[in-house]
From TrEMBL:
Keywords: Aminotransferase, Pyridoxal phosphate, Transferase
Coiled coil: none
Family classification: Belongs to the DegT/DnrJ/EryC1 family.
MF (Gene Ontology): transaminase activity
Name recorded for this polypeptide: DegT/DnrJ/EryC1/StrS family aminotransferase
UniProt keyword rRNA-binding present: no
Alphabetized Pfam families for the sequence: DegT_DnrJ_EryC1
InterPro entries: DegT/StrS_aminotransferase, PyrdxlP-dep_Trfase, PyrdxlP-dep_Trfase_major, PyrdxlP-dep_Trfase_small
Amino acid sequence: MRKETLEQLALFGSPPSFAEEIPVGQVNLPPWDEFKAAFNGIFARGHYTNHGPLVAELEEAVKNALGVRHAICVTNGTIALAIAARALRLGGQVIVPAFTFPGTVQALSWAGLEPVFADVDAHTHGLTAASVAPHIGPQTSAVLGVHLWGTACDPSGLAALCDAHGLQLFYDAAHAFGCSHAGQFIGGLGRIEAFSFHATKIISGAEGGCLTTNDDEIAARARTIRNFHQAHSFADVGLRINGKMSEAQAAMALLSLRHFDAHRDHNRRIFMRYRERAAVWRGVRLYDYPNGEAHNYQYAVLEVDSAAGLSRDDLLDLLRAENVLARRYFHPGVHHLSPYAEQARPPLLPVTDALCRSSLQIPLGPRVDEGIAEVICGLIDLALAHADEIGRRLQARREGVPG
Ligand SMILES: Cc1ncc(COP(=O)(O)O)c(C=O)c1O
C-alpha cells in the first residue's frame, strides 16, 4: 500500500508497509530440483571435500566466465584475501580503505600485516592514486583496493603508483563478480583478486570465495597455501591453512553461475526503477554505476545529505519501522572498530567519515519486485516531502517530549 500522509507512517503508530521484513542482503536460491540433483551427485560420489570434481568444475567455469588464467576456490572471501596476501609474500604495511566490509581489513591482520587506512573518493567510494600516495612509506609493501559496489577501484592510477614505488597491488573483488572495467571482466586486475561467494552475493556457495590471477607463480602459491596438507604442494610457501572449498559450496556456486544472467537482469530492473525515482529526490543521491561497463547491480546505495532536510538515521528509522531493513553500510567505518580504533594516531579520513554518516543501503535482490521497490520509493518521497516535521518529531521523541 502506498502511504500518503505522515499519520500513515509506522514510525508514528500505523501498521508497517510490509508484514514481513525485507532485508538488504538477499539470497538467490537455486531451483529445488536443480539443488537436489546436484546434491544427489555428491552423495552418489561420496566425495564431500578435498578438491572434488565440483570444485574443479567451478574453477574452470569461473576462469572461462571472467577470462583469467587461474581461479582458486576457497572457503570464503576473507580467507581468500588472507591467502592472497600470503601468496604475494607481503610484509609490513598494506594501504587499504576503511570504507569497506570489516573482513577486508581483518584478513590483512590475520596475514600478519599492518593495515594503513587511506581515504576514498567521494564519487566512486574507492581508493585512488591521489588518496593512497600520502600514506606510502618505507614499511609499505602493497595496496589492497576494494571494488566497492562492483565499481573498479582506479586500476590504472593505482597500478602506475604501485609500479613507481615497487609495491604490489591486489584487490578485494567481493562485490564485483560479473562487473567490468574497460570492457574486461574484473578478475585479472592487480596481481591477484579475491571474490566472495557468500550467501548474499550474486554468486553464492552459501559461504565461499575465489582467487583469480593471470600469474602462474602466485596461483601456485595460493593453491598451496589453501591446503594444509603437504600432498597438495605446487610452490614453496611457508605457513599454510585450511582454505578448501567443499563440494556442497561448489555445487551451490555452480548453480548461481548457471542462473547469473537472470539474477543480474532482475537486479538491473529493480535498480533502474530506483534510479528513475531517485532522479527527483532532493538531498538523496542513488550511487550510480559506471557507464558502458557490465554490472551485476547487486547494491542500491543512497547518500543522504543536508539538502534532504532529515538525517540519514531519521530515514533509516522511518524505513525500518516499515520493515524495510535498510542498513548503514558501512558504519562506523573499520577505523572506528576494534582493534583498529585503538590506534595511537587515528587516521584522518574526512570522505570516509562523511560517507559513514550519509550512506544507506536499501533492499535489492530476489525478494524485491517492482511493486516493493515502488513502495520503498514512495516512503522516501513521503519522508522528503515532510522532512522538517519528521525530523522535529523524532528529535522531540529522542528528548523524551511527547508527540
Ligand atoms: C567488500 C567485502 N570484502 C570482503 C568480504 C568478506 O567475504 P566473506 O563473507 O566471503 O568472507 C565481504 C563480505 O561480504 C565484502 O563485502
